[in-house]
Amino acid sequence: MSVSVLGVRHHGPGSARAVRRELERLRPDAILIEGPPEADALVTHAPGLEPPVALLAHVPGAPARAAFWPFAEFSPEWQAIRYGTSAGVPVRFCDLPAAHSLAGEPSAAEPGDQGPGGAELDVVGTGMRGDPIGALAAAAGYDDPERWWEDVVEHRGGDTPFEVIAEAMAAVREGYRPEEREARREAYMRKTLRAAIKQGFGRIAVICGAWHVPALTGPLPSVTADNAVLRGLPKVKAELTWVPWTYGRLASWSGYGAGITSPGWYHHLFETPDRPVERWLAAAAGVLRDEGLAVSSAHVIESVRLAGSLAALRGRPLAGLGEVTEAARAVLCEGDDLAVELIQRRMVVGDRLGHVSDGTPMVPLQRDLRERQRRLKLKPEARDREIDHDVSKPVDLDRFILLHGLRLLGVGWGTPGQARGKGTFRETWTLQWRPEHDLALIEHAALGTTVPSAAAQRARDLAGAPSATLADLTSLVEQCLLADLPQALPGVLAALSAKAALDTDVTHLMAALPALVLTHRYGDVRGTSADGLAVIVRSMLERICVGLPVAVTGLDDDAAADLLKHVDAVHSAVALLTDIPAAPARDAPPGAEHSDVAEEAGPGASPRGRWMAALRGISDRQDLHGLIEGRLTRILLDSGGLGDAGDRMSRAMSRGQAPARAAAWVEGFLSGGGLLLVHDPRLLGLVDDWLTGLSVEQFTDVLPLLRRTFGGFAAPERRSIGERLRSAGRDDADRDQDVDEHRAAPAVATVLSIIGRTNG
Question: Is a pLDDT exceeding 50 seen at residue 3?
Fold first, then answer.
């Protein structure tokens, strides 16, 4: 019986090649790998997987209790799994079960940012007292532990000295007492090893982080001691499966297995043992050419020479990532940091996304999404991918509905953007798949077996939450329409109606109304049914009109500016309510809601008529803030319902008004744009006379307001106003200029002689 413990660096290409070579030499009849034992049954799926992938462990019903074990093609553990499955050798995991690891307090980090090995050091980890690899690197004269590991391990072509690593780790761990969590993990590793020996396996290979090698070799603690360490561990029900992983996620990893900053580079080292530097720089040149940058073969040759020279100067056996990056920066990129960043993103990190086979255990919701992705030809990718939808086309509409349904489930695979073209039917999305999306799907698996059914139930749950605000419910109605969830709309609309009826804050109603109007408009244009939404919109608008006179009372500058935003938003929204019929008056004749009677403020008024009547009633009040009064005057003027705008402006700018209030009135009046001053000389003259009549001190006080007002105008508007004022000043000067009779005498004499008269 023999036990070979191979200490590795997680995600190390040199270690991966060395493990594969060592397993082929040892030909073990059992392989133990650091990882959760519950995943033993999942090993058989490995041949159908495409790395990077990860084992996902989660506690059903508790999404915060989840952990990932990522594997890349260049991970030693993955190469051990592939060897075992191809050679018919049993492969088992020997770390602490996930049922125990996930039983503690859930991490404050995101579910995808944790792992049961997060406290482990391995060969480059953090979180323990001291850094063994840092100590070994310092002893060798290195100030960078990563570079030392690359030089002595990764660049040896697969000839990793496992015995030397074991001796080094034993020396570093001498006198070290592991903390409780690590002690339990190593006790369980020994328990699994003893069980394999007891089952009669004669040649056992153990692949684990180099830090754990001394705990599995030499004199081991007794079975009784290990059982005492493991006794009384908390336990939960954990479920495991394989999920796709990304190199970008691996680069940002801070948990199990210690993440690496350059997975793309490591993948290259593993896949290209022959002339890796030359092939890397040639590929980098290709990336730059794809972006339209001029890079020749001579650039590549010179960059290879520079990388080799830098490695020789630094005493390195082979140019590493630092050397090839400096060579690419100096030669290929010619010092351009943006080009270097492009290589970093595309190659050093990479955008590779793994794939799991159809036979992998999945919840029905995951399978439904996979089928929809195939049918709609939406392949998940790690790199940002922008797509443009024309939702008038059936396939694009189905994609649009799917992406919005997923967003309702917390799966942000797609982010909507600004469409480039014009039209109501165009949508632009940016797609990027992240591993956490699988966890979100698993979390919501109990809501339904398909994306629409799960999204609909999620909408009902959100609508019934006591903490749901009016704004939340308004947004939820919009999401239900976008995701085409008519089965969820009645419940959401009922919750919205109840919340709106109880909310006494007019500003809340004003903030919610525009989104509801747009949602109603969307349903009308796209043909989506939203029965009952028009009733809610009309009811909310009525309550706004009733409560607005109170809301405009006693406002300071900040409150007035905030309310003005709501007034403008509601006014813009009301313009879209042409298809919502007026509430018929009790005594109105049939059809009155479609006549001029609907424009009055009576009970049968149209939404626009009711709103304009409310604004007109407020505009004559004397206690309004200048900003509000000026804006209401402008709205009424633009609607054609006001004939005394000039008189109102004259009163607002009279000497009896404080300059600050007059300036606020001007700001509100002109917030709709400056073209009015260009086309109305009287209003322009009123503003000009008021402004030129201010004293120096008054002008200094109101200057910030005026600068903000006129600074918001478009440049052509400001130029036209200036030209109007300049020409008006020139006309006045011409009229008032005194005539120099002495200089005019010769011209007068000439004119008189022409017409046959003398100057007598």
Answer: yes
